[in-house]
Amino acid sequence: MLKTGIKPDFITVDGAEGGTGAAPIDFSNYVGMPWEQALIFAVDTLNGYGLKKILN
User: How many CA atoms, within 13 angstroms, populate the side-chain half-sphere of residue 5?
Assistant: First the structure.
């Protein structure tokens, strides 16, 4: 994004909760992060690269 200036149209944030039930239990228990932390990470990353503007 920084090199080309091409930015995504949308970003999907999906937490580690739930799933299909087909994954091994270790994946469900130890991979990913809760959606709240994932959303905070995404917002912080967008702000860090100047890609998110706060509307007043």
Answer: 0
